[in-house]
Design a protein that fits this description.
The chain is of the alpha/beta class. Helices cover 34% and strands 15% of the residues. The protein has six helices and six strands; from the N terminus they run E-H-E-E-H-H-E-E-E-H-H-H. A six-stranded mixed sheet has the order 1-2-3-4-5-6, sandwiched between helices. A hairpin with a 2-residue loop joins strand 5 and strand 6. The radius of gyration is 16 Å and the shape is globular.
Length: 202
């Protein structure tokens, strides 16, 4: 973690870099989730199989890599943070106002009907999609470690959408879950259980 409280991550690809393109997609699955730590061709094939099976696709475009641009049109839902948003738009500065963020998210949209979700850390989330703009703040919580917060957000968002939640409701729960994760040390170890999320919702 940096002195400013931001997580700093070094990626050692290892087995991830050797992941082959899949040949099957799980029957009955409602949502396919992938991110940029595996080969782009594997993600492209995974999303193609998902669409053929009638499933939605969610792409967490992190870390931001040039080859990720080609995957954006294959995703029904794209999740980026502010820095990744600027990278994919080829811009040097991060949008600061909600209006500028919303406009930037619309520019990143690769096709009609797509959702572009911009995570804002302690400031919550902004999403642009078929239903317009959704802007949700995050609860103020004591921050211990932000590692894994983005993964928590994406995992809970995907789970809620797969269960049939609306996008605004799924986003609200995902933001809350990410807020729970930053209050504990670790990546996977900090992720809240379903019971902890439900308790916080109550």
């Amino acid at each position: 973690m940096s002195d400013a409280g931001e997580n700093q991550i070094v990626i050692v690809p290892g087995a991830n870099a050797a992941l082959a393109a899949p040949t099957v997609f799980p029957a009955g699955a409602a949502l396919a989730v992938a991110q940029a730590e595996v080969p782009a061709q594997a993600v492209a094939r995974f999303f193609t199989l998902a669409h053929e099976a009638g499933a939605r696709t969610l792409y967490n475009a992190a870390p931001a890599l040039a080859e990720g641009r080609g995957l954006l049109p294959l995703a029904d839902i794209v999740v980026v943070n502010e820095t990744e948003l600027a990278f994919f738009l080829g811009e040097q500065t991060v949008p600061e106002s909600d209006a500028a963020l919303a406009a930037a998210a619309r520019r990143l949209m690769a096709r009609a009907g797509q959702w572009v979700i911009v995570t804002l850390g302690g400031a919550g989330v902004l999403a642009e999609g078929p239903d317009g703009t959704v802007r949700l703040p995050a609860r103020r919580v004591p921050v211990v470690d932000t590692t894994g917060a983005g993964d928590t957000f994406c995992g809970v968002l995907a789970a809620r959408l797969a269960q049939g939640e609306t996008m605004p409701r799924a986003l609200a729960v995902a933001v809350l879950a990410a807020g729970l994760s930053v209050q504990r040390l670790g990546a996977a170890a900090s992720m809240p259980t379903r019971a902890e999320v439900e308790l916080a919702l109550a």
